[in-house]
Amino acid sequence: MNGNAPPVLNKPSLELGMIGNGTIAGLIDEQGAYGWLCLPRLDGKPVFNALLGGGGTFAVELEGFVRSRQYYVRNTAVLCTVLEAEDGSAVEITDFAPRFEARERTFQPMGIVRRLRPLSGTPRIKVRLDPSTGWDDKPMQVTRGVSHVRFASDTLAFRVTTDAAISYVMSGTSFLLDKPLSFICGPDETVSEGVNTLSREWEERTVNYWQNWSRRLAIPFEWQEAVIRAAITLKMCVYEETGGIIAAATSSIPEHEGSSRNWDYRYCWIRDAYFTVTALNRLSSVGTLEIYLRFLRNVVASTKGGHIQPVYGISLEQQLEEQIADALPGYRGHKPVRFGNQAAEHIQHDVYGQVILGASQAFFDTRLRNQAGIAEFRQLEQVGERAWAMHNEPDAGIWEYRTISQVHTSSALMCWAACDRLGKIAAYLGDSARADYWNERATTIRETIYDKAWNDKIKAFTGAYGGEALDASVLLMAEVGFLPKDDPRFAATVDAVDKQLRHGMHVYRYKAPDDFGTPETAFTACTFWHIDALAHIGRKEEAREIFEDLLSMRNKLGLLSEDLDPKTGQLWGNFPQTYSMVGIINSATRLSSRWAESI
């Protein structure tokens, strides 16, 4: 409404808080400005896109501003930002995406609520409400109502209903905040009740929802705050209509400064399946687990046992054409800004094992409303046949190399896992013939990996058959049960990774040059894998030290991104990264002392 001028913000950083409700998610900076919000769902167009240098934002500017502080309401996804001025006046901003049970269903609209409250003095503020059309970063069409403003583009319309003076909001005029004000941003529909009354009620019910959800979690004795925050963040990354879980809420935050490794992560990576299911199981978050297992089963059903993509859209979209948004300057000026993801077109053989590893729990978990049986097993067998056919074939690997094709050890490992778990499921279902069939195939793949991936010269399993370069993904061998924890080859591999891929407390995916040069930042999920691997081989105190250090690298609100610069401790990569938040849950559960031993 102010010409879509660039917002007056600090230099963008990942000191951001996240709010969400399973339909949408927004990111808010330390001064209470929205830098990111996609509508009408998690993968929609970013109407607030200031994080990537665009003009779209929703900010509250306090005259004479000197400092701010930010915190979550305990055990919720309700975020509070307090702005303080040099004259002692202060404003509290409360942001949340409504979520609660109503009329026997979950109310989780395409919308957010922002509440402003004067805390002290006579604060004078300016509200900047300037949504953008998204990737082309043009101002939206604006229509004024009596108590709302309607914003529209060719593909989207929404309205902001408020008890603030519409004239002040539309003109960006400064005014005294002498009473609480509320803004309900949502579908282009009339808000029939008083906006202040409704927003207060929604806030109370949303707080109650999250606190009730959190209190049902199974958490470790140690690091409770970190695990609960990770769990809530993971929950916000679930698109609950389908059960798909996005890899991160953002697109195109580069892996390091000057990098062109800028990808759109608002999609569902199959490689995350096993670790996500493991985390949800450890949390006893059965409801979320069930809808995610349903998503995986739909992936299997839609492919009919054939090629499974590395990544799908949140509604199982297969076409994710990657495009460049030239109108956006990028995070801290780092282009390109991409939407869509070419990885959907890649050949990546580890996905077959990841799907089966993730889906296996549905056969063994009697808590589930719809426990899997023989029909689901037959569907998974088709995936297993594909894993068997591909286990010795080159692919793009778990890290989705764009021009490098080899037989990657991690892909073969997951093909083994597919056959191994099918053998276990068959045995559980009482089909000894199919159990023998799949166990025989698992044994063949295992022996091939021993023969082709072990490098006796460097005393480690390498990233690709016949190679010498290390890859942190081989740390998963013990995690998925490929090797006994006390196998000397695994301990030797952990030592090799420790020496070659670890920098300080942080682990790189690999250090060999790839399509975009040599990696400059550590991949946070790999550090968690290393922590778990150290625990597996009995180096638990060292694992705890690294885990504590990694927790200290979270932003002020307890969130982690994809990558981390070991030299500066600065967060890089898309945010918040599901893989990283899952890592907190899994490692904390593994390393924590037991409740019975601690109280």
UniProtKB/TrEMBL annotation:
GO-annotated molecular function: hydrolase activity, hydrolyzing O-glycosyl compounds
One of the GO biological process terms: carbohydrate metabolic process
Chain ranges of the GH15-like domain: 225-587
InterPro entries linked to this entry: 6-hairpin_glycosidase_sf, 6hp_glycosidase-like_sf, GH15-like, Trehalase-like_N
Domain Trehalase-like N-terminal: 16-149
PANTHER family: GLUCAN 1,4-ALPHA-GLUCOSIDASE, TREHALASE
Record protein name field: Glucoamylase
Organism: Aquisalinus flavus
